[in-house]
Design a protein that fits this description.
alpha/beta; 7 strands; 187 residues
Amino acid sequence: MPDTDSPTIAYYTVVEEERTGWTGGLLLLNGGGRPLEFQCTLPVRPTRAHEILFGLTLRDHLIGEVIGPLLVRKCRTPIALLCCDQPEALKIETRTKCPVALVEEAALSDEGPMDDESLLGSTRVDLAGSTLRVAVEQAEQVQQLAANLIDLPDATEPFDRIREAIKEAQSQIARAQSSRLPPAAAA
C-alpha cells in the first residue's frame, strides 16, 4: 500500500534532437523513487521565424515558458517538489505552486559549468546525495521536503529514465509512421 504522507517529487528535462525537435518529459515519483506518473510532449519544432525572433533566448523560451509549464499543467498528481537539470527550467517557478530546484550534479554533467549569475538568489539543499539549488525564499520548505524524502535512492538518475522514455516514445512514433507508408515509399 502506498504511503500517502510521502511527498511527491517530479523530474523535468527537455531533449533537443536536430531531426525531431525539442521533447520534454516529466516523471513524478513517490518518496521511494517509484514512478507515479509520466508525461511527455510531442516534439516541438520552432519555425525559422521563431529562431530569428527569439534569437539567443529561444532555448529559455522553449524549456522554461512553453514545454515545462505545459507538462506541469498536464500532471494529474500534486507535485511537492519539481527538480530540473537545465537552468532555463527554473522559470517554471512563476507558473507553479511547488518549489523548483536545479539538481547541480545533473546540470553539471549535461550543460557544462553553470553560470553562477543565473543562480543568484539561490541556496543549496542536500537531497539523496546530490545538491539542489533553490530560491532562498523556498529553502526552508525544500529542506523540510528533503527530510521527508529519505528513502529516495538517487536525485540524478530519474533524468536518465526520462531521456530513455523519450527515446522509446520517439522510436515508437517512427515505427508507427513507417508502417503507414506505402510499400514503395518505405523501401
